[in-house]
Amino acid sequence: MPRLLPIALSLSVLIAATWLPMAAMADDAATKPLGMAELLAASKPDAWRTPDPEQTLYLDLPAGRVIIELAPDFAPAHVANIQTLAKAHYFDGLSVLRVQENYVAQWGDPNAEDTAKRKALGDAKPNLAGEFQRQRSAELPVAKLPDGDVYAEFAGVSKGFPVAGKGDQIWLAHCYGMVGAGRGDTADSGNGAELYVVIGHSPRHLDRNVTLVGRVLLGMEHLTTLQRGTGALGFIEPPAPMTRITSIRLAADTPKAERTAIEVLRTDTPLFKQLIEARRTRRESWFLEPTGRIELCNVPIPVRLKP
Amino acid sequence: MPRLLPIALSLSVLIAATWLPMAAMADDAATKPLGMAELLAASKPDAWRTPDPEQTLYLDLPAGRVIIELAPDFAPAHVANIQTLAKAHYFDGLSVLRVQENYVAQWGDPNAEDTAKRKALGDAKPNLAGEFQRQRSAELPVAKLPDGDVYAEFAGVSKGFPVAGKGDQIWLAHCYGMVGAGRGDTADSGNGAELYVVIGHSPRHLDRNVTLVGRVLLGMEHLTTLQRGTGALGFIEPPAPMTRITSIRLAADTPKAERTAIEVLRTDTPLFKQLIEARRTRRESWFLEPTGRIELCNVPIPVRLKP
Question: What GO annotations for molecular function exist for this entry (chains A, B) (predicted)?
Fold first, then answer.
């Protein structure tokens, strides 16, 4: 009996099919609610979806590939700009500029603020209005969480993204693994040419302050293991080596043989509600206290390599 | 005007005095509440405390030193066992066994479960009752947070540690940077010979399931940048190299010249309450939405090198 902590599968963790305890299913299914591993092992193929290749970004670093799902329902203008930049190979050869412990990693053009030196943005727009929140709509059903949220009136998951909301407004939440577009002091000073990812405890006070554009589906470890910058705010300073971006491309623009075939669990299904409940009230034998509560950024949105 | 995200100083981040914007103080002090940087810059020496060297653990890794403050008020038996093990050099030469993305890093004896092969525990006890919660007491004042908590009746900070509670009970909370003692399936199967640290979004469902023993004050980056294990649950598997523990010692048992002189902001002061409010309602010019809410694991408990 190994002395372990239990399994955590949170927002950005790949599920390796190998450790799913298939054997537990038959015995327990009739007698008690299933845990997450059992629910996923028993899931039907249509419980999963293939992310749209036009909305999937491959951030290729020397250490490996980071896969980001874009969120056009929440940040259409920023997503369009990022797609334009990626198609123009804007990011290729740029670097990770900042890695701040328990906060964010950020990449892009180190001269973004210098109109003389900065890399040309081509057909992308230099400034975009902030896309901090939007109207709720029937096309964006929210799987609401039952235990409330410290930062908002409600919280839940919509179309594969963690969201929070108030009244008829809804916004993406700064959970671990979420990707945003840096901005300066004004709301319209971002454009998607400088992106960041949350690599620590979820800084929810950034919600509605900066535009989130997507979520890391796979490869978070290539960002979280980067050496922290020694400058103020975690900026990388000489003589520390810069991590160069090999390329940022849309999956749609990547030759088929070089794509990574993945699936994301759908979040508009009864199975996903069961999954939330399985993580909310832990029935795995290791747990002495089942908790009976769950907070937004601890809700798993599972991703797997295609079988 | 650099395109930045604002400063995040969360539980385990060192404050480098250099970036404190001292200049802002004189102008703004009379007219608006101070931000965190200003509050810390203006803090008196007695707002800080020096952690007790008997309750301070140095985890020395090849990459550098991780400093952990032990929490004898919350886990006296586990802390005593860890002190016994450290004094006997139990951990020296053992390894980091597990690094799981967005969850925990864990270290200790890979043969801990094998009574024949495992490293002898010496005077330390092989099994300890879980120390999952305790009675509130006047000696443990709690700086309570005003915005509630998803996982508990109340949350706050006590003697430098994030805590949650219900009625007259209080417990340490699994925030980023908190250190715990692994256990097996029963409450009394831990002993402090296998320790873990939270390296992702705070897994609060572990609260009251496993004994927390302290908090990383400095050096989190030496744990968070470790390569993730490729085995189930993030266990390190061959051929990946193991990260060896150079030593784990109490600061008190470390020659004075080899100690790291640090201070932690006291959390039982009016200044600390001001700090919480400064982080709860952001007045720095970058923020468009001041939020007006704060969640336990986003409360900073600042640490600095001694001036």
Answer: peptidyl-prolyl cis-trans isomerase activity
Rounded to two decimals, the ipTM of the complex is: 0.92
Ranges in chain B annotated CATH 2.40.100.10: 53-262
Considering the domain B53-262 in this protein, what is its CATH number? 2.40.100.10
Give the mutation candidate from A67, A128, A150 for the B interface (greatest B CB count, under 10 A).
A150
Chain A residues with beta carbon closer than 8 angstroms to that of B279: 205
Shortest distance, CA B53 to any CA of chain A (angstroms): 25
How many CB pairs lie under 8 A apart between chains A and B? Answer: 212
Bridge-based pairing of strands A161-166 and B48-49 is: unpaired
Where, residue-wise, is CATH 2.40.100.10 in chain A? 53-258
CA A131 to chain centre: 17
In A81-226, at which residue ranges do the beta strands (DSSP E only) sit?
95-99, 104-108, 134-135, 143-144, 154-158, 161-166, 169-172, 178-181, 195-198, 211-218
A225 and B221 within 8 Å at the Cβ level: the answer is: no
**CB-based contact A224 B220, cutoff 8 Å:** no
**Topology of domain A53-258, CATH:** Cyclophilin (2.40.100)
Q: Which regions of chain A are under pLDDT 50?
A: 1-4, 7-29
